[in-house]
Each structure stands twice: as C-alpha cells, then as structure tokens.
Amino acid sequence: MPGYGDSPPAEMVATAQGRVAFLDHVLQELGIRRPVLVSPSMSGRFALPFLLAQGDRLAGFVPIAPVGTKDYTAEQYRRVQTPTLILYGDRDTSLAPQALQSLRQLPGHRVAVVPNAGHACYLDKPEDFHRALLGFLRQLK
After folding, report:
1. pLDDT, tens only, 94-138
2. Which of 22, 29, 86, 129 could be disulfide-bonded to 122 (CB atoms 3.0-4.6 Å)?
3. What are the sequence ranges of the domains in the chain?
C-alpha cells in the first residue's frame, strides 16, 4: 500500500479522502464493478473510509481485524448497507476485540471466528479462513 512498508511516502493517501480516491482509482483502472473488499489489518486505513463513503459500490465487505475502526462513529457504521463478514482469529486478543466492538454496529453483518488463529488468521488457519470466506461469498447476490 502506498505510504506503508518500504514504499515511499505518498501525499495522495495522507488523508481518508485521498485513500478513498486511491482505492476508487485502483478499482476503475482494473475495471472492477461491485467487488467484495477483503481488508486485513493495515488495509483498514483504506477500506473503512471507502466503505463509509462508497459502500454501495461494494457487493460485500470482509474486515479481518482492521486498524482504524475507532476513527468512525457508531452512527457512521449504522448507515452502511453493505453485507459484511467480520472475520478474525480467536488468538488475536488486541486488535480483533477492538475492531469487533466498532464493526458490530454495521447492520447486516455476520461474525466468523477462526479457532486457534492469531491476527493473520488467513495464514495461521487458511482452510478455516477460506471456508468462512467462501460461505459468505456464496450467500451474496
């Protein structure tokens, strides 16, 4: 992601509006319409503002213990109509409970907990993670 890890600082993504614009640009360039946005950890800084600003463009949202959930109010979350699967590992005892507290304000959400998995539950227990994800995807229209 721009501005993270070894990538150079990026002025465009310094604000939430800039991160929404960046993600919008990526989706437009790829020609993706109505994607399911899967958002682990740090990608929450991009996915959450996009969800709140343009959630109607998404077929679904799958936050996996994303960062930045406290940056938004319960009322902002309650306005979102995007089907959501809140997914996390039961051994993620720091970020997952904090994110869950905010994300459970999303109407139309489901919660799936990956047993014996940490913050990167998709790496710790990929079969369980994919079972939950695919089950959610099958239920989307």
Report:
1. 888 889 999 999 998 999 999 999 999 999 999 999 999 999 999
2. 129
3. 34-138
Query: Whole-number mean pLDDT of the chain?
Result: 93
User: Is the Cβ–Cβ distance between 102 and 73 less than 8 Å?
Assistant: no
Check: pTM over 0.85? Answer yes or no.
yes
pLDDT in tens, 16-68: 999 999 999 999 999 999 999 999 999 999 999 999 999 999 999 999 999 99
Q: Say how far apart CA 111 and CA 90 lie, in whole Å.
A: 12
Classify domain 34-138 by CATH number.
3.40.50.1820
Question: CA 55 to CA 112: how far, in whole Å?
Answer: 21
Average pLDDT over residues 86-99: 92
**Residues pairing with 54 in the sheet:** none
Any idea of the CA torsion for 23, 134, 56, 75, to the nearest 10 degrees? -100
Amino acid identity of 37? Answer: L
**Residue carrying the six token digits 């929404």:** 20
- Known catalytic residues are 41, 92, 119
